[in-house]
Each structure stands twice: as C-alpha cells, then as structure tokens.
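Quarterly update from the structural biology core.
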Amino acid sequence: MSARSGQPFQFHGFQTTIDVARQQNHDVAPLAGQKRLPDHNPDNAHKVSVLSHPTSTSHLSSRPVDFVRPSVAPLKSRITASEIRSVAASIPEKERETATTEDHVYDPCQYLKDPRYGLSPALVANFASVGVKSIYPWQASCLLVPGLLEGKKHLVYTAPTGGGKSLVADVLMLKRIIENPSRKAILVLPYVALVQEKLKWLRRIVQDVEKRIDDIDDQAAGVEPYHQRWKKLQKSIRVTGFFGGSRTTATWADTDIAANSLINTAIEECNIGDLGVVVLDELHMLDDEHRGYLLELMVTKILLLQQDIQIIGMSATLSNAIYPAATSRQLFQTITRLASMSTVSLTDTMPPHRIIQPPAFRELANPTTNAMVALSVDTAAAGYGALVFCGSRQACQLHASIISEAMPVPAAVDPEELSRRLDLLAELRSLPSGLDPVLENTLVRGVGFHRE
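Predicted structure, tokenized:
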C-alpha cells in the first residue's frame, strides 16, 4: 500500500515487503549513486501505482528487449608464456657451418636407398615424399639382421609410441611382397580407425611401385592392349582393408576376428601358401586374458603349419614372457651390452637449436610446465594445433587451465574464430549433461581437454 511522503503508514491486516522496507530508518548508498525514488514526487503517485499493477502491460511493451552476450574472459592474460629464442644468432657462422656439416654426416645404412636394403627407387622416392629420408640407427640394426630382409627369420621388437617401429614392419612387409609377387601380407591393427589410416598411408607408399615380375611376353604385351593392361595389374600392389562397416564399434574383437577368419579361410581352401608375411601390432595383447587368445590362436596356427610365412610382432610395451625361448639369449645379451656401455647425455652430442627462457611467473616454476606452456603457445601462434598427453584426469584439467591462461585474450583473437568458439560454447551449454565450468573457461581461449 503506497503513501505520500510525510504521512504515517496505514496497514489493513497485513504488510508487504515494500511496507517493511519503508519502515527502515537507515539508507544504503549504492556504488553507482543514489537513485531518486518516484514516490518522492507527488506528481508521480499515479504513475507508480499504474506501473506496479500486475495486470498492466504498457511498461512491458514499451521496454526494449536487450540481449547482451556474456563476457567470457578477462581483458588481460594472467600469465605469459616464456620466450623461445633461437641459438643460431649467438653461434659464429663458421662454427654453425661446422656443426651443420657434422649433423648431416650419417652412416650410409641410415638411408633407405642403401643397396643393402634392396628397395626399389620408386619405393624409396615414395618414402621420401612423405618425409622419410633417413632412419634411426636402431631401425637400421633391425633391418640388417641376417636373414630378416630375405624373410628367413621372424622379428619381435619393442619401441616407444611414436619411435618409428611401424616403419620397420612396413619396409619388411613391402620388400617381401615386391620380391615375391605371388605372396600376400596381412597387417593386424587394434582399431578400425587405425586400419583406415593405414590404408591411406600404404596406398600412398606403394603408388607406382611394381612387383618384380619377369617380362617374358613383352612383345605380345606391346601388341595386345588387354595383355598389357593385365600385366600392369599383376605388377601393381593392391592394399585392401578388412574391417566392419562405418557403424561397427571399433574394438579389438572386430579386427582380430577378421584376421583370424582370413587365415582360417586360407587354410580351408589350401591357399595358406600364398601368405608371405603377417604383421601384428600391439603384440602385448597376448597377455590379455580376454582378448589375447585370438592372437595366440592365429600365431600358433601359422607356426604349426610350417609354411614359409614371416611373423613380425611389435609393441610399445612388451614383457619378457612373450619372447620365445630361442631369442631369450639374444635379448639378455642385448640388455647386458646396453648396461655395460657408458651413458652419454644427448645434451653433449646434440646442441639445441632453440632455448626456452626461464619463466617470469610463479605458476611456471616447474621446468616441464614452463616448456609445455611455451611450446603449446608457440605452436598455436604459428597456426597449428598442439596435443598434450597427461598422466591423470586432474593433470589434464590443470594443464589445460594453465595453458589457456597464457593464450591470447579473446579481444586479440580474430572475430570469426571467436564467434566459432562462442557458438561451440552455446552448443555445449544446451547439452543435457551441461558444460563443465573449467572447460567453459579454457575453450574460449582455444584450449580444450578430454578426461575420459
């Protein structure tokens, strides 16, 4: 119930919150200043009563509807990534030329064009086109094992993820197929997505690479176009993928069952002799009690058939129990030989090309964190994406947060890119599960994380 200024308040059985507020004897001044109440002016009494009436819609119709996009980030980054400086400017030109010359002096066996590998020039050129111009010393030692390139021995080896273990298997598999045109190869991969990626890789590598077939009917091939076309198909290397459809879940069972079925069919049709090499990726799954039996059955059948089939197994984590007893002595000799060698730091033999400067912020005091943030921000500034692997879910969230704090603020980002990020945030907010608040803060800076 309203009343004019200076008149006592009258209550008729109840009090509203407005009446209770008017009885307060102290005032709180807001930061933006004191707002003039419309009741203090007697001329506005009628207007106040009209605007406060619940059935009145004149105010709602006249008030504009303003949609303000929420602010998503502060105006300034909290931390700044450490600078990465090149050391080439601090090295004299003569020393830099000498160091460059020494860096490019490799053993001839570290090049795929070395005659000891016996690879065709077309295959070497295809490897060079994808950036594989030289190999590591350990890869060369694997390939140059006596009898391995000829397919007379099996190979089981382990190397870290991203260390280049697939290249060794690819070279051995392709060399076996090129030198034996009637033979086939099977490459077993753990997931359907890897099969699709490997298909593209192998098809690019074997492009214009021909098998070694004797051209006895060259004169007839030059006369008959059909025969010439058929001869070309015989020389070409075809790469085919056997996996489930696009809607099939990419699990170990799909790829293992497909490979095992191919071998079973070849045995039933008496065509197992056409198989020349079998490559098994993620060989450590032999120890798995749920999924390892398929690999074990497949390898056991190949070994018991006593066919001329080469087996190549590789894994990033391989236990000693998987190695056959015949090769255990060589394995232990290798470990002893490595243990007896003197350890040489890579910093003494490989001078750095760029140096990450010390951090200026307490959050980057850890050298690993400082390098991670500096490299991630530097890669993003160059227009590329960076992928950071973390040891736990909590570390994934923390590292994403600290990288996002060093990324450019939204005001410095291209408007189109910022609009795409905000649209993505809107889509994630509309999901039934909602949006993680940490992901909401990092995503607008161009940093996302996945903890599952």
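Strands lie at 84-86, 155-158, 184-188, 275-281, 310-315, 354-356.
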